[in-house]
Structures are given as C-alpha cells and as structure tokens.
C-alpha cells in the first residue's frame, strides 16, 4: 500500500481539455474558449517553430542529457554560472527533484494555504510532512510561515506571484523573511509568473542568489515564453544544491525539441514583450468587465485572475462550460467561491465576460 501521505493526496486536476468538453456538449472545438491553465494565448513564436523544425531530424538521438546549449543560453541571458542551473521537464519536475533530494519521512515542508497544488504532492510523495500555514488576504503570510519553521523543517515553498490567487510580496517582506529563516532550511522561490510583473516593481529572485546560499529560484518557459506543451523549467541555486539535484535527476529529463525551442524562445525578446503587453491589456479588460458585473476579484500580478462569485462557484463553472468557456474551479485550493480565469486574447476575454454575464443572469 502507498505511504500514508500519498493516500491523503488528491490527484492534480488540470483544466478541462477542449476535446472533452466538445464531446460532452456536442460543441464545435473551434468555438470553445479555454482560459483554464494560464497558457500563453499568443500561440508559439515563429522563431520557436523554426527551431523545433530544425531539431526534428535528430529525433532518433537522445537529447543532450546536460542541456548544455540551453544552460549556456540561460547563463548568457541571466549571468549565472552553468553550475548553478538545473533543468527540468517543466518546473514541476524541478519541484519534484527538490522534494526527492531534500525531503523524507520526519522532514517538515512549509507552504501557504491557497498555494500551488504541486507543493503538497512533492512533499507527501516522499513521506514528508506538509505544514500548511493560513494565508493572509489570500496571499502568503511570510512572518507566519517563518514562525512555522521548526528544527525538522527542511524546505519552504513560496510562490511570487502565487497561483491561483495572483497575490505577491515585495522585496522588503522577502528580505525580512529570508533573514528569519535558519540556514538549514532551503527556500524555494517559485517565480513561474514573474515575467508578468511590471519591471522595477518586481522582486527578482535572481538578485538574491549570491546573498542567500539556501535560496532556490524556480522559473518556467511554460507561461510568458509560450512553451507549456514542451515542458521546460529550471532553477538557479547554489552550485552544491544544483549538484545534489543533478544526482536525483532522471537522465534526459528535457527532450531535444524542448531544448531547441527554449533556446529560441529566450532569444525572442519581441515575443516576450508582446506576451506581456497582451497580458497587461487583458488584465485591465477583465478587471473592468468584472467590475461592471459587480463582482469582486483578487488583484493579480500573474496571467490569470481569481473572481469571487460570493457563492458556490461550481454551478457558475458548469454554466460557463455549457456556453463553451472553460475556466478553472479552485475549490480544491480552499476557495469554493472563486473561479480562476486565465488572461486570453481580447476576443476570448470578451467571450468569457459575456458568458459569465449570461450565466449570472439565469
Ligand atoms: N509553479 C506555479 C506557481 C505554477 O502555477 C505552475 C504552472 N501551473 C508551475 C509552477 C509549473 O509549471 P510548469 O511545470 O509548466 O513549468
């Protein structure tokens, strides 16, 4: 039988696939709007498609197991030595490597209420104890999280911005937190959505890598870089931490199409700028539209927004599905009255707002 911690887990529930909804309600898949998985609505950059095309003839070969070219590109872009970089099959893979390398039965892992669902999975899968700290105003209560650290704590997961709430913390809060974390604790700062935070405003975890040897900063190519299907994430850490992660990493965990696409994506500044602009505009559009509907929402720095329906969100979610709009219920995150909506193209956001108005009027 599974470990007790595993028995208590619920499987991760992804956004409902378009094909599934189309079949269920007899809808044309092309008519369905999916704003459920915080994906980049722009579609892949032409530069990325070309890079993938160029990599196709090598399909019979194993990928570069150390991801040298991608690490080189990351190093050039962000200024880190290769020895600090760990690549993953999505940042979920990186989170799992961290759990497998540093957690075990008897170890406590601290994270916030309403935090990303993968933190309890990677904790409990290795028999460690999850310590969930109540959130404050939907966001991480960093002082309370620091206070929850015991001699048994080995890892703390914090996300900035957090998913599914979109909440964030500032430099001063983070620095005060790091100052109160003992050195035996590794802090995993998950910056999956950091590209959407306005420059200058953002706490950039990379600025702190030299200062805090117990800090691991995770990032992904799935969101602003638009590569969710290919699964590429990475973390920057002290070289000794990277060395440990490399020991538990599966060989060839990042495939060659993903490696090639990531190198191209990192070089494509204009795609990134366009993604960010689209998100900025779409966020404003959704905020305004939700205000017009008289709905509350949690201010977000991500590419999604959590809407408060003031009542069980389940029936509204179902109503939206019938209208061909897929969003994400977050009852599993102890947010039964909210729905999380990813920022889409202008027309997609409009479809969502109209469908929501229709459902609420029923
Ligand atoms: N961290 C957070 C906070 C996320 O929301 C996500 C994506 N849902 C991830 C990590 C993982 O993303 P990926 O595995 O696609 O890199």
Plain-language structure description:
- With 362 residues, the chain is an alpha/beta fold.
- It has two domains: 4-43 and 270-361, Aspartate Aminotransferase, domain 1, CATH 3.90.1150.10; 46-268, Aspartate Aminotransferase, domain 2.
- Helices cover 38% and strands 15% of the residues.
- Strands 2-8-7-6-5-3-4 form a seven-stranded mixed β-sheet, sandwiched between helices. It has a four-stranded antiparallel β-sheet with strand order 9-10-13-12, covered by helices on one side.
- A hairpin with an 8-residue loop joins strand 12 (328-329) and strand 13.
- The radius of gyration is 20 Å and the shape is globular.
- The mean pLDDT is 96.
- 4'-deoxy-4'-aminopyridoxal-5'-phosphate (PMP) binds next to helix 5.
- The modification N6-(pyridoxal phosphate)lysine is found at residue 223.
Summary of the model, kept short:
With about 350 residues, the protein is an alpha/beta fold. About 40% of the residues lie in helices and about 15% in strands. The chain has 13 helices and 13 strands.
Considering the chains and any ligands shown, give keywords for the structure.
362 residues, alpha/beta, Aspartate Aminotransferase, domain 1, Aspartate Aminotransferase, domain 2, 2 domains, seven-stranded mixed β-sheet, four-stranded antiparallel β-sheet, 13 strands
